[in-house]
Amino acid sequence: MSEYYDFHTHLPQSPEGVTRMLCIVPGSNASPPFSSGIHPWDTAAPGVEEHLLWLEKHIDELAAVGEIGLDRLHGASLERQSELFLRQLQLADAHDLSVILHNVRCTPEILSMLRRPERALWHRAPVGRNKLIRIIDSGGAVSFTAESLRRLDPALVPLSRLGLETDDSGEDIRETYRIAAALWHVAPEELAAQLAANFRNLFHR
Length: 205
Ligand SMILES: [Zn+2]
What we know:
By secondary structure, the protein is an alpha/beta fold. The chain is built from 7 helices and 8 strands. It has one domain: Metal-dependent hydrolases (TIM Barrel).
């Protein structure tokens, strides 16, 4: 039985005892569970329409759609990003899948586009107080790397909305769990049980 959950990673190899939600580029292969989506950074690249078709065709293999979202600094124009984001949100909704969100300086725009904010995991979520409160109030879940946990006020995040992730950092998720247990003042077993429930709740397929 898995003791640890990595809610978002791009690296296929995880230590033993870790269940990871691997994020793959549309058109590639992986062992489940995995998510896929058109990353905002790739929205100006050739092949976007083919990637959308691949997502539609392989949607039943996905455990979530993502990472998708909006990025004010990279990728296509925000208008084009919004169009692609919306189409992928609709695909996730139609198949009752959660979305894993990428957000750079677009929290209000993303919140206004989510029809089911409670089915969203905000990966590398903002740690700024006002943004974080808005996201938690919307019903969404938030996920952090070890590095971002160090800048976070844990009082703003109920454990029932928490995910932990390594993303592309190469960090050890077990160490991230240790940091989180100390930060929220909970026993490691309690944290592990809560995160297992959160993972199942978000990725219930
Ligand atoms: Zn990522």
